[in-house]
Amino acid sequence: MTSPYIAGSSSVSAIMFKLLLALVPGVAAFVWYFGPAILISIGIATVVALVCEALMLLLRRAPLKMFMTDWSAVVTAWLLALSLPPLVPWWLVAIGTAFAIIVAKHLYGGLGSNPFNPAMVGFAVLLIAFPLQSTRWPPPLMLSATRVSFDIMLAYIFPGLVEAPRFLVDAETMATPLDTLRTQLGLEQTIADFSYMPVFGRVGGVGFEMMALCYLLGGLFLLQQRIISWHMPVAFLGGLAALGGALWLLNPGHYASPLFHCAAGGTLLGAFFIVTDPVSGATTPRGKLIFAAGAGVLTYVIRVFGGYADGVAFAVLLMNMMVPLIDAHTQPAVFGRKSRT
Amino acid sequence: MRKLFRFHGGIHPEQHKEQSSQLSIALAPVPDVLVLSLTQHAGLAAEPVVRVGQRVLKGELLARPGGPVSAAVHAPTSGKIEAIEARAVPNAVARSDWCIVLRPDGADRWGERTPLQLTGANRASLLARLRDFGLVGLGGAAFPSHIKLSLKDDAKIRWLVVNAAECEPYITCDDRLMRERAPELVRGLRLIGELLQPEEIVVGIEDNKPEAAAAMRAAASADQFNIDIVPIPTLYPGGGEKQLIRTLTGIEVAAGHLPLEHGVACFNIATVHAIRRAVDLGEPLIARVLTVTGNVATPRNYEALIGTPMNQLVALAQEQTGTDGYIMGGPMMGFRVAAKDVPVVKATNCIIAIDGKHFRTPPPELPCIRCGTCSVACPADLQPFELYWHTKSHNSARARDYGLADCIECGACSYVCPSKIPLVGYFRRGKSEAAAADRAARAAAQAQERSNWHEQRLQRDAREAELASAALSTAASASSEAIGIKQASVQGALERARARRNEDPATGHKS
After folding, report:
1. Pair B319, B380 in one domain
2. What ipTM was estimated for this complex?
3. B390 and B243 within one domain
4. How far apart are CA A157 and CA A6, in angstroms?
5. Does residue B22 sit within a domain?
6. pLDDT tens string B358-399
7. Fewest 10 Å CB contacts: which of A124, A207, A246, B7?
């Protein structure tokens, strides 16, 4: 064993644990606006993630205890569950999580070796394979016409397992603010014509804007703990807001404000918890800026010009592909090999 | 107030300095036997100039520098040369090396001591004294001191930067030296200043040693000597030579260059102490102050003769039970020594007795998660995690592209790594692999060149033989007048070819 013989106190499990801790305010807001069903989704995702993790570690003959206690699978599970709507069937969560852990993480070499963000791979698979179920959000509780009781939620999550109440109908879904924007603009309306709709809330939609605020809080905690650096969130939001802001200034009737885009959908969850994934992201200071700004621009492009309501997942996956290139071309100058006297 | 500059990265490890910095420097007794390594400096081994059985006086030359980058070794006390043999030496790779074993006679009798006459002396005379008196950097690297002053065109020295940062945890020998011998150190600085004529003398002391800085200031003002004692932020590795020069002057020493090429001469404060003794008193480097700490009852600093066995010093500090090893140097850049009786060498600034309580076994290494904490901490602006991939996969070429050679092995990356990857260990291995690959490449290039020459010689011989046989047939048919000068040269070639053929046993042709 060679020097140094002393070490700091940081550890992978501490980092992962703090990430989970930083998600708690967001989860609380989620529960407040969409009911406790999300907790069941998170629970299912966590159990499936841990089972898949253990299974793959056994298959790979990797030390079980060391890797099971790093919490990384749980972080993936939570991020995936929080990306999905709350009333999705259990098997959907399970398939997404299993794909994330088995394929996106372990088949690429496990912790530290995955080129793509596992949670976003899982989410993208669900978006493509089950587009309807994975994007169908219920209305926030306060906008719901009917009271959604807990047994109705259970009936949604465990179809066939829990006896469905008789009045269980598809009416319990409602377009998200991003969906509404897309639909209404498709009907040749200008934003001013439909911005009165209650779903839009104050800035980014009822529920979503408060969740965004809570993710921001968690993100500030991560910044303070130095688990993430400012580069990624700032560049991601900057890229999104720059493109969104330019178009909004050109035509505010057709393009929503950058503030709306920052508060809507998964923007802030993405900015602080998804884009910042160190394993699959760029690593150099300049590279981080390019990577995250690219993801921000792509998120906007997919939302506004693409076929999906939200674009964080695909934007991040597309930028993940660029990471080797970005890193190779943004290496900082080494001490003694630059002039800064 | 001097403007200080920032170097990239750095860490704040726990200091653990107060344990050993409370007591004054104690004089370690002359041991029963002294073991003097011939390779206790960077560069070539020293060459012995004494015989086994020879009696030597204190300060007498035992081994002369083995080359331009090498250092002399002197007798730390009077006695008899008992052996010149391979002994265990403190070395990162824990091997044995040639040592001169000296049995002290107890008289501790000095040989002749000649102080340097300052009248007419200059940089060259200081350089010669440093070389002949075995001076090496006492901060840890043991780089021969005279090399730091060797510059062909005698360029102007703008700054004399004195490294008194002592940034490694646990080590307090420079701290105590400054607190107790500040006047001597200021005298040393004055001497060096007179010989080098720098525009400015700057002493960098980390701000966790206010007593040392105060003592130095007091001594400087008592001596009415204009030097700048600068408290620098306590930030490891602020005492790295290039980091300190950056902090104090803003200069970033270019890779592969000496500070002197930027107008900076940099010496450790302990080296200044040794230089002052060499210049003023005519004493070669035969003793040094070092910290003995860790799992001992009375951690403190000792002034010990070079060659004193380590276990004697640890015993002086009352080693406690539970010690399961020793680190020579600090916990960040030092190394574990295998044998208990390895001798103190010129570079030994600290001995730490380690036990499970102070130094826990590291947890198992997890995969790198590319979090980049290491690159934030790296004072050389490297991307250690990139170097890790390439050194782990033995890819020397890629590791070089990512600046492996610029790694100063300070250990900041390993310290902060959440996956507990011994990054510096990988880099050290990578460096030796790169060196081996370079040697192999050089050998291959040489072999290729030899083979090319051989091929060319064979072709030339063949051509000459052809020419000769062609000339023979022409000579047979041509008239004697046509032969002339041309034939003479052909004849010559023919004879040469014949002679060569005669030498060649393979042809079996004898004339």
Report:
1. no
2. 0.89
3. no
4. 49
5. yes
6. 787 788 899 999 999 999 999 999 999 999 999 999 998 899
7. A246
